[in-house]
Amino acid sequence: MSPSDHEEASVLYSSERGPKIVPNVNANVRKDTRWTFWLITAGVSTTFGAAVPTGYNIGVINAPANVIKSWCNETIFETYGTVFTERNLETFWSAVVSIFLIGGVIGSLGGAWVADRLGRKRSFLLCGFLLVVGGLCFQFCKAIGSVELLMIGRIVVGLAAGLTTTTVPMYLTELAPLGLRGALGVFCSMGVTGGVVVGQVMSLEEVFGTEDHWQFALSFYVILVVAFFVPYHWLPESPKYLFVIRRRQDEAVNELKRVAGRKVRDEYVREQIDAMRRECTPENDEETGRESDSTIDKPKERSILSVLRDPTLMLPLILVCALQGGQQLSGINAVFFYSVSIFESVGLSSTDAKFANLGAGCLNLFVAFFSPILMAKFNRRFLALLSCGMCAIFLFCLTFIVYFIDDVEWFSYASIVAILMYILFYQIGLGPIPYFIGSELFEVGPRPAAMAMGSIASWGCNFLVAMLFTTLQGAWGAFVFLPFTITCVALTLLLKVYLPETRGKHISQIVPLVAKGFSSKPLVP
């Protein structure tokens, strides 16, 4: 390290070791924080090639539900000679919808293994392959009269969705320079949000949501997958994956230079190499200032079980799982489900209420477009706390308003305001941050396992809400929003005490702040 580097160094402490010198990677971050061709290409390709199709498969299934259920009933009768009762048909349809979420859990569980074995880039390729297979199942299930093929398609795209939410944010944040890590990290969130809206539009009766064309609604996203996988061959692999996990240092440096662009400074490249070398140096060798031969050759990948057993990773893992699970338990899907009836209560027809609900989804997407700017300009803690706190307030207001909506005339309009404000504050923090926060709290080695656990929490809680919400709504009425309110309050308290600020900080500065479990004091300078 040069004398000037020593002047820009910061000292980090941990309970197990004495002080260690870590270069201040923030000093020159603005000089190398720029959007390069390969950063933009990777962001656009993964967003439209995997994230948008993931959201599409979430949003497309609701509008044509009745015509698809009718086809399922007819097909089952023709194939097996059995006619479903209304109750049996609803149970079967619940299975068709929820099997996608089960696939998401399974895909997330395998995401850690896939990300380490195949690499970040080829994980993206696997996502695309599964999405195309699922789309083909949707396209041909009606032609050959196979309900089973419809079910297979749903679980296959669910696997792709779980793999996407585990690996794509990790891939993008590992490609991004420090100053753009948050901006690029929210691309997956933006893609999923946009995909939901596109799916809702394509499944409208005026488009493909008819008895004759619903299979085109389900499979339309394949066009996006094929189109945005065209540049796949030239996309860069994650330099951090190559250097830390695969130990292919020369290849990692070449990819680093390619991602950073032709104007990259040699000093920046050296800083990044030093940072990656610190991540793949064991603690005992780091103290003596040397690396053993076995360290150089042995990949530093971590299994989910080893991450779960590591006490130093307990708190960041809880934070990741709480944010990803809390994202679903904050009630966003329930609000969209309930909003149609609220829009109808102010005098809108059933059709107009559905279009108004689509408009609420467009608001969600509109706010999502500002996520990269918000992540670049504001601290993660501030946005997360503001989002959770305000979501709790507006969910409580919505509970109160819906309970008395028949007694106060203007409460119908107040409920619309509460829904729109909830969506606004959800999308500035709870929407985007959980997708990439694991990449900022974990080093490269345990990162895939942590991202997988977070994704499992997300899809698992999504499944829980899907299974229980309708039942609870019938039993509790307006009070169905109270559990979501409590979740937002609890999440606000957890983040206020234990979430460190990660914006503009290198992972070597963040990890020691959360390494002592609940004894950690991440806010103490």
Topology readout:
Elements: H1 3-7, E1 9-12, E2 20-23, H2 37-59, H3 65-80, H4 86-117, H5 120-141, H6 147-175, H7 181-185, H8 187-202, H9 214-219, H10 222-228, H11 239-245, H12 249-260, H13 266-279, H14 283-288, H15 293-297, H16 304-309, H17 314-329, H18 332-345, H19 350-368, H20 371-377, H21 380-403, H22 411-428, H23 433-441, H24 447-476, H25 482-498, H26 507-510
Antiparallel strand pairs: 1-2
Structure commentary:
The chain is mainly α and about 525 residues long. It has 26 helices and two strands. A two-stranded antiparallel ribbon has the order 1-2. Helix 17 runs parallel beside helix 24, helix 18 (about 330-345) crosses helix 19 and helix 19 packs parallel to helix 22. The radius of gyration is 24 Å and the shape is globular. The two termini are about 25 Å apart. The relative contact order is 0.13.
| Lateral strand order in the biggest sheet | 1-2
Radius of gyration: 24 Å
> N-to-C SSE series?
HEEHHHHHHHHHHHHHHHHHHHHHHHHH
Give the averaged pLDDT, no decimals: 87
